[in-house]
Design a protein that fits this description.
Bound molecules: NADP nicotinamide-adenine-dinucleotide phosphate
Strand content: 15-25%
Largest sheet: 7 strands, mixed
Radius of gyration: 23 Å
Shape: globular
Helix content: 25-40%
Number of helices: 15
Distance between the termini: 45 Å
């Protein structure tokens, strides 16, 4: 009985009031120090990571920063915990995860409020992420119950079985603040592994709140360890550690490729070949052909390109449009973008568009806007300010050539490049030309084009007459091709097998 979690409706007064109350709770905790959690112990360190509100630059709190010595302790502790957890019956592991899901629901407004404050999401985006977390937890419990039955084998006069067993210490270095780290943890825990979590330095508090709930749910000490720290301080160390068996990463292509390379090196004392799941960036395109419903296409493009400030790996950053509907489509996208202008007062006040995550992201996005200003014509946006927080207005740039930088490089911000084409084949060719292959959409009413795109548009998640964002667990299994990643397809049973070894056991029954 799996059912997707339903998002809260924040137009209902009661929900608004609860959200405001949750912000009051968060307010009281601002400025606190959040320790590491190693083997169930709280460890404070001298060095801190400051978590800033991207909307106001206010200090939200200080996460302790893990050193290599403490990372060593966490990995050793996880290895010890693994010995017991890996033989704990699934019933117990699943029970803890069901409890965790319940605790997440009970603390829903509070977690949403922290996510809004720390990541700059609006309320709906934050709650949508929490629903995704619940879906990950519940789907992984369901899949593991099925995998536990083992693999069906041909009956012979031997007694044979093939069972899935946990592999060992897993390390997920990054998260979307909540659902990605939560999904990684749930998958590791339900499969009987222990895990060392290094959250992003931009969102350590949301991750801390989640790991706290794991403890409350009864997951034993040492199974889930929490060690924020900068990638440069401890990233390579935890990846290269001989006891690490599996690295589950979500982040940029640059870091994902680095992890893959470092994980391939055999460290002294290492007894296995490490697995890497790396889900990385995208340069996602939406194609609009001459037969498309232009209004619907414009709404889908604007929503995919600008919600959460374009900081979704699935966000649309290229609209590839047939010449005969090009001007009409550009005008319609601008109309939609106008509804989404960045609200400079955004933050907890639930504006449609809020800030981008930090100063580096702001600098990177705005420098791409300046590149785009030279490569095409800005027809909407192009304005930004980091005076109070990191705000970039949704930006639409038309007449971009296929070889332009903003047509090929990931920007990870609210910037849309619009490219004109003369044929559907040319549109597909441009859509496939980047090194990425994460998501893509086609707006068309022509069956022939739809059927062609199903075969030729080479992305992990392909949609028709629908936006390229908002994948739902077990409705749209998620993961990219090419330099977008290892195509792990989160939320599926296949995903869990990354955390497992398949052990074949045979007993001769003849005398
Ligand atoms: P990032 O710069 O690659 O950082 C990701 C994580 O890697 C952070 O926790 C970072 O730590 C850590 N890290 C840095 N150096 C490391 C090292 N040497 N070893 C191990 N870990 C290391 O990515 P980001 O800017 O935070 O995230 C945006 C990117 O993620 C975009 O490219 C986006 O498309 C992608 N993304 C992909 C998906 C997907 O499912 N495909 C989903 C969401 C996001 P610090 O924070 O401490 O530096």
């Amino acid at each position: 009985g799996f059912k997707n979690a339903a998002e809260l409706d924040f137009t209902i007064d009661e929900n608004k009031v609860k959200m405001e109350e949750a912000f009051q709770l968060v307010e009281k905790e601002k400025g606190s120090v959040f320790p590491l959690i190693i083997n169930g112990e709280r460890v404070e360190t001298e060095k801190k990571i400051t978590s800033l509100s991207p909307a106001t630059k206010e200090v939200l709190g200080y996460a302790c920063s893990c050193s290599q010595e403490l990372a060593e302790k966490a990995i050793q502790g996880a290895n010890e915990a693994f010995k017991k957890w890996s033989v704990t019956p699934l019933e117990e592991r699943a029970r803890a995860l069901r409890k965790l899901a319940r605790l997440v629901e009970e603390n829903r407004y509070y977690i949403d409020a922290w996510n809004v404050e720390e990541s700059g999401k609006n309320w709906g985006e934050a709650d949508g992420e929490l629903c995704e977390l619940l879906d990950f937890i519940n789907s992984y419990v369901m899949h593991m119950n099925n995998l536990e039955k083992g693999l069906e084998l041909v009956p012979t006069d031997e007694y044979t079985k093939c069972i899935y067993i946990p592999i060992g210490v897993a390390v997920p270095p990054w998260n979307f603040p909540l659902s990605l780290i939560g999904g990684m943890v749930a998958a590791a825990v339900v499969t009987g592994n222990s895990i060392v979590c290094k959250p992003s330095s931009d969102s350590p508090i949301v991750a801390y709140k989640f790991v706290e709930l794991c403890e409350k749910a009864g997951i034993p000490a040492g199974v889930v360890n929490y060690i924020p720290g900068s990638g440069s301080d401890i990233g390579d160390f935890i990846v290269e550690h001989p006891l690490t068996r599996f690295i589950n990463f979500t982040g940029s292509k640059e870091i994902g490729c680095r992890i893959n390379e470092h994980a391939a090196k055999i460290s002294k004392g290492q007894k296995w070949i490490k697995r890497v799941v790396a889900e990385m960036g995208g340069k996602n395109a939406i194609i609009v052909d001459s037969s498309a419903n232009i209004k619907k296409a414009a709404q889908g493009i604007a929503s995919s390109a600008f919600t959460f400030q374009g900081q979704k790996c699935s966000a649309c950053s290229r609209a590839i449009v047939m010449s005969d509907v090009y001007d009409e489509l550009v005008d319609a996208v601008v109309e939609e973008a106008k509804k989404l202008k960045a609200d400079q007062g955004a933050g907890r006040d639930n504006a449609a568009i809020g800030p981008v995550i930090n100063q580096n992201a702001y600098n990177n996005i705005t420098s791409y806007i300046e590149v785009g200003r030279k490569e095409g014509t800005i027809v909407y946006g192009g304005t930004y300010s980091d005076e109070k927080g990191y705000f970039v207005d949704p930006t639409v740039i038309r007449d971009i050539k296929r070889d332009a930088r903003i047509a090929n490089e990931e920007i990870f911000g609210p910037v849309l490049a619009v490219i004109k084409v003369d044929s559907f084949d040319e549109a597909l060719d441009i859509a496939n030309q980047t090194e990425y292959g994460l998501t893509g959409s086609v707006y068309s009413e022509t069956r022939e084009n739809i059927m062609k795109a199903k075969v030729q548009f080479n992305v992990g998640n392909l949609y028709f007459n629908r936006k390229s964002t908002a994948a739902v667990v077990l409705q749209h299994p998620f993961g990219g091709f090419n330099m977008s990643g290892t195509d792990a397809k989160t939320g599926t049973s296949d995903y869990l097998t990354n955390f497992l070894n398949l052990k074949s056991i045979t007993e001769d029954l003849t005398d």
